[in-house]
Amino acid sequence: MPRFAANLSMLFTEVDFTERFARARAAGFEGVEYLFPYAYPSDLLARLLNDNNLTQVLFNLPPGDWDAGERGIACLPDRVEEFRAGVDQALDYARALGCRQLNCLAGLRPATLDEDTAWQTLVANVDYAAERLAAEGITLCLEAINSRVDMPGFVLDTSGKVMSVIEELDGSNIRLQYDLYHMQIMEGDLIRSLECLLPWIGHIQFADNPGRHEPGTGEINFSNVFAAIDGMGYEGWVGAEYRPSAETSDTLGWFDGWS
Ligand SMILES: O=C(O)C(=O)[C@H](O)CO
Ligand SMILES: [Mg+2]
After folding, report:
1. CATH topology for 3-255?
2. Best mutation site among 102, 140, 143 for ligand 1, i.e. most ligand atoms within 8 A of its Cβ?
3. Candidates 157, 241, 242: which one to mutate for ligand 1, based on the most atoms within 8 Å of Cβ?
4. pLDDT band for position 244 (50/70/90)?
5. Helix axis angle, 159-169 to 190-197, nearest 10°
6. What is the mean pLDDT of residues 41-62?
7. Could you list the active site residues?
8. 249 by DSSP, 3-state: which?
9. Ligand 1 atom nearest residue 63's Cα
10. How far apart are the C-alpha atoms of 54 and 233, rounded to whole Å?
11. Is 205 in the pocket of ligand 1 (CB under 6 A)?
12. Which region holds residue 136: left if phi is over 0, alpha if psi is between -120 and 50, else beta?
């Protein structure tokens, strides 16, 4: 049975971030993920996880200046030092939170940066990060994010591009983060793709499309997709990363039967 995690950057935003852990537990989740832990002391987050008997499933490496629109710095040649410092910071949090997977956001390619340089920088940074994480038994995820609607210019916008990085590096702890929402926009054919890519998938996330709301608000047949994920023996977590179209607790109908 898929293990579902609540994404606390998107769910339960009716309450302050630190109160969302208890809300997730009360709703039946056993794991949580969120964009970034860095604004909070790690001991506070560790206590919230412990008090609510929750697993920290995933968070992202520092993304650069998120509020200014940056979406990762891994492809930027003039930010390599900052990228490496971010790996240190993320590892400190991962240790404190017992988190076994970190996601590396590839970043947006500026018009002034040529594709080849962006790609070589990305591959070298992923290689560095994967090696640092491997020493601690942690997996590095690379998420393919749609460049049609949400992140124009995002360097890794297809599962094929993520697979190219994985193949180029041959890193045993590098995995694809397969977000059903982004992949529905870019590629479709979700169940067949999940089956083909299964050995390389480290984490799955979902939202319906269009709108990025809860299952049932768009075009994806989630009963079938979740049943397929269950049937193919996927052992990782599945993160609910959607914008609730109503009070979060009123959007959890999809969870019935899985919790
Ligand atoms: O946008 C997404 O799908 C995400 O998972 C986070 O925003 C970045 O990892
Ligand atoms: Mg995602």
Report:
1. TIM Barrel (3.20.20)
2. 143
3. 241
4. very high
5. 10
6. 98
7. 143, 241
8. helix
9. 8
10. 23
11. yes
12. alpha
Is the pLDDT score of 201 beyond 80?
yes
Q: What is this model's ipTM?
A: 0.96
pLDDT exceeds cutoff 80 at 171: no
* Ligand index nearest the alpha carbon of residue 10: 1
Rounded Cα distance, 163 and 141, in Å? 11
Q: What share of the chain is helix, strand, coil (3-state, %, to 5)?
A: 45, 15, 40
Count the Cβ atoms, other than its own, within 10 Å of residue 248.
Answer: 23
User: Looking at the DSSP assignment, which residues form a beta bridge with residue 102?
Assistant: 59, 140
Q: How far apart are CA 49 and CA 57, in angstroms?
A: 11
Give the distance (Å) from ligand 2 centre to CA of residue 205. 5
